User: Which sequence fits this backbone?
């Protein structure tokens, strides 16, 4: 029978909200969110029939954004889709799991290094009137520094996926991240928004 489905497709990019075109927002929603939904709906009859597993690739970035809000948006949305699906599938014996990796940019190559020059050239005249090249370069340098800190142990995420598919009692969520990343998620989930905003604003200022 058909046992497991892993929704892993995803794309990422860098840019503040006004820097990105509507076409780019639509593309990201289509791949990162609607792509997983389309695939899930196509295989749902078989998964119900064989009481299988559905695994979704989310990210800790679903909890906060640091220069890639467009990616965070899609991951937050897929989390809510999974929450609804997990509850609905219980009566059929189908289990739904979410994988929440931390920074594995160096393992997956999902996000190439950012070029400030390319970003600047793609900005609308309205955005160029608000920002300057120095600001764009600072943000690009910041984001590239995050990418360079990414873990190269991609097997940790694969292990979580395998456990989600084969464990007799899989977790609803597998957070595969460094301690400091887990702490950031903890602060975001339990503290008032103003606290998280202050933490992230401080990080951006550095």
Assistant:
């Amino acid at each position: 029978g058909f046992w497991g489905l892993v929704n892993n497709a995803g794309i990422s990019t860098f840019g503040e909200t006004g820097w990105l075109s509507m076409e780019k927002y639509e593309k990201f929603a289509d791949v990162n969110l609607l792509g997983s939904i389309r695939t899930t709906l196509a295989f749902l009859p078989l998964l119900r029939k064989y009481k299988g597993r559905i695994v979704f690739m989310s990210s800790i970035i679903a909890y906060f954004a640091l220069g890639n809000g467009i990616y965070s948006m899609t991951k937050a949305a897929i989390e809510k889709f999974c929450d609804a699906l997990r509850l609905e599938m219980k009566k059929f014996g189908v289990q739904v799991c979410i994988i929440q990796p931390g920074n594995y940019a160096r393992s997956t190559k999902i996000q190439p290094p950012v070029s400030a020059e390319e970003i600047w050239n793609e900005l609308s005249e309205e955005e160029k009137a608000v920002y300057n090249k120095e600001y764009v370069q600072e943000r690009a340098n910041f984001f590239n520094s995050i990418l360079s800190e990414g873990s190269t142990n991609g097997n940790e995420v694969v292990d979580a996926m395998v456990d989600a598919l084969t464990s007799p009692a899989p977790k609803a969520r597998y957070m595969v991240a460094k301690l400091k990343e887990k702490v950031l998620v903890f602060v975001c989930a339990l503290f008032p928004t103003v606290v998280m905003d202050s933490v992230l604003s401080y990080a951006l200022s550095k």
Remarks:
- The radius of gyration is 18 Å.
- The beta strands are 4-7, 53-57, 95-101, 173-176.
- The CA atoms of residues 23 and 121 lie 17 Å apart.
